[in-house]
Design brief:
By secondary structure, this protein is mainly alpha-helical. It has three helices and no strands.
Length: 90
């Protein structure tokens, strides 16, 4: 749903972000995007890098997660412990 709303995205970028979403869903499941905190993202990055995924790919994945969070009204900022969470699913 988030990706469908990304008007003006270059075709290659669209494909790249589409490739990120299955990895994010596998890690974070059906959780709300804004429920993912910075510690979880850092752990996700460590896991992906340890699995041999390139830095560039991991950066795309984290950018996609921030984009999902942007739909919550937080402007792409990811949750801190005190941030309330609107209902936006990954």
């Amino acid at each position: 749903m988030w990706l469908a709303g990304k008007a003006g995205l270059a075709p290659k970028s669209h494909v790249r972000y589409a490739q990120c979403l299955p990895h994010l869903k596998a890690e974070f499941g059906e959780r709300l995007a804004c429920d993912v905190d910075c510690n979880e993202i850092a752990e996700y990055q460590r896991k992906r890098l340890a699995a041999g995924v390139s830095n560039r790919s991991v950066n795309y994945e984290v950018a996609a997660l921030a984009g999902l969070s942007a739909g919550t009204g937080f402007g792409g900022r990811l949750r801190t412990a005190s941030t309330p969470c609107p209902s936006v699913m990954m």
